[in-house]
Amino acid sequence: MPLVTAALLTYNHGPFVEEAIRGILRQTAAADVELVWHDDASTDDTVDRGERALAGSGMPVTRIHRRHNRHSFGIPFLMDVYEACGGEFIAFHEGDDIWLSADKIADQLVAFAGYPGADICFTRAATLDADGARLPTLVADYGETGGIAAVETVISGDGGFMPSSSVLLRKSLVPRLPAWAFSFQPINDYTLQVYGSLRGGAVYLPSVATGYRVNHPGAWTVQTHADPTRLMEHHCHVLGIVKRMKADAPQHAAAFEPVIRNHMGHLMAVALEIGRYDQVARAAEILR
Questions:
Q1: CA distance 190 to 263
Q2: Please, what sign has the CA dihedral across residues 270, 275, 279, 281?
Q3: Are 154 and 193 contacting, i.e. CB atoms less than 8 angstroms apart?
Q4: Is residue 150 located within the same domain as residue 256?
Q5: 157, 183, 213 — which closes off a domain?
Q6: Residue 136 located in a structural domain
Q7: For residue range 264-281, what is the model confidence (pLDDT) as tens digits?
Q8: Do residues 46 and 12 lie in contact, with contact meaning Cβ atoms separated by under 8 Å?
Q9: Is the pTM of the predicted complex or chain greater than 0.85?
Q10: Is residue 220 in some structural domain?
């Protein structure tokens, strides 16, 4: 049984998926890594390119390749991915990101051994442009000294506290997640970061172990911020999950309040810009 499952999530990541898979294959801990690959019915050559990168690797692979796109129908698939993961640890990996360090997983396993009460570990990430060139800024740059980030700090990060491609989770966290966390969500990062930090905080490693790709046209962030309606729906979605998390963790309620104000402020700014207020009313109902 593998120690770690790399859970690769792809949709139309053809230009990037080979690099993503090569980053998984070159891990020094590769003998203890399996791959669970969920492709949400890509319409480009993502699958063909991914299979080309995997050819002859010998890595155990479980393929969940959809014929119909789950996201467009609002159908959740997170539980399907979890159930296919055999490892004690799970590393989620979007198909347009990359693991830069061959020791990413090995270093995180060592870190978990030092913090047995923690359920989540993350690293810094380089920012990459659409062509893979490194940009000057780092993501999650919290200094050169590793350690534990408190759950309140993770909450205040509003989903952007840690790069999703850098995260390693204990699979034992899964049964402790609330049932609603497995329902359809446009993004799952924030939920996993918060619940992963509740028991013992989040382990931070200062290594720049992953690359986070920005500003390519197919990116979720680019598409969402280009569409005011979609952006307002996103803010409403986040407000909904923040309300649920606040109810689940009342001892940390104060940490959620600035996050709520932030999303309400951004939502109202977009509403004023386009003269549409239906989502503001929806947000008020969500928070009631």
A1: 14
A2: positive
A3: yes
A4: no
A5: 213
A6: yes
A7: 999 999 999 999 999 999
A8: yes
A9: yes
A10: no
